[in-house]
Design a protein that fits this description.
CATH class of the largest domain: Alpha Beta
Helix content: 10-25%
Number of helices: 6
Number of strands: 17
Number of domains: 2
Strand order of the largest sheet: 1-2-3-4-6-7-8-17
Oligomer: single chain
Shape: globular
Length: 302
């Protein structure tokens, strides 16, 4: 019976039991897609990553496939940040001492990740998003959004929009922390409001924050992917750069710190950077810290 090694991590946090949990299965080249999906369903985390040999050989390259409990994703942020931290901390990739970077081959394409060292050891990782934020389909009407979130229309502070860096999210700006704390999504409206506009999740956000060093407080819901609520969503935060830049256009280097997962008791801090030139976003980077939590073995039935 084949036996595979797995590790779990908490991502976008510097302490165990914070951030967003992640499972990473190593040496997964022999697994078929249905088996990967079964393992992801067994872990029942927002995402599970399967690490394989890269299609393009290289000492700091790996291929990864990312699954929610219900589906495979072409790209996801916290799995990218967490998996690269794990590979670096376990010494499973060879890093250039002068420019420590890893490339993770994903279904969306190559995703470069910078590794930040402290006292010679990996401490944080930052991915460069392979696809710039794009505004997608028209968003639902404010009345529909208010019903979906169980809020009054006055709690929605701006026009909603669908943005994507490979995975489309519906971004809804809310008035304050009180409004975001009262969100109660109605699953009976999910198909008609969210799925109908092509979004895979709903990302609600407000500029009112709990921490003085943060600029955005957020929550993300994706029941269609088997994730009732996510404590930290790197793919959504990547696309959030488009929504934030559209609401407050500026040139040059932009930086935001996003706090997420506070309502779940899993506080997460995500650092978002965007380069803007000529009114266009030319680069997006998302990063944060990760911590290893556990490791174990999976016996795969023959």
């Amino acid at each position: 019976m084949p036996r595979l090694t797995f590790h779990t991590l908490d991502v976008f946090t510097d302490r165990v039991f914070g951030g967003n949990p992640l499972a990473v299965v190593l040496d997964a080249d022999g697994l078929e897609t249905p088996r990967m999906q079964s393992i992801a369903r067994e872990f029942n985390l927002s995402e599970t990553v399967f690490v394989q040999r890269p299609a393009t050989p290289g000492p700091a390259r790996r291929k990864v496939r990312i699954f929610t409990p219900h589906a495979e994703l072409p790209f996801a942020g916290h799995p990218t940040v967490g998996t690269s931290y794990l590979l670096a901390s376990l010494g499973l990739v060879q890093l250039d001492a002068h420019d420590p970077r890893i490339v993770l081959e994903q279904n969306i394409g190559d995703v470069p990740v910078r590794v930040f060292l402290e006292n010679g050891a990996p401490a944080a990782t930052q991915m460069s998003v392979p696809r710039m934020p794009e505004r997608a389909a028209a968003a639902p009407a404010r009345t529909e959004l208010a019903a979906l979130l169980s809020l009054d229309e006055a709690a929605i502070s701006a026009e909603a929009a669908v943005w994507s860096c490979g995975v489309p999210f519906l971004f809804v700006s809310l008035r304050d922390l009180d409004a975001i704390g009262r969100v109660n999504q109605r699953l009976d409206l999910w198909e008609s409001v969210v799925a109908a506009c092509g979004a895979r999740g709903v990302f609600v956000h407000t500029p009112q924050t709990e921490r003085p060093d943060a600029q955005v407080h957020a929550r993300m819901f994706a029941p269609g992917l088997g994730v009732a609520e996510d404590p930290a969503t790197g793919a959504a935060v990547s696309a959030l750069a488009g929504a934030l830049q559209a609401a407050d256009p500026r040139e040059g280097a932009r930086h935001w710190r996003i706090e997420q997962g506070f309502e779940m008791g899993r506080p997460s801090l995500i650092d978002l950077e965007a380069d803007v030139a000529g009114g266009r976003i030319t680069g997006v980077r998302v990063g944060g810290r990760s911590v290893r939590v556990s490791e174990g073995r999976i016996d795969i039935p023959g």
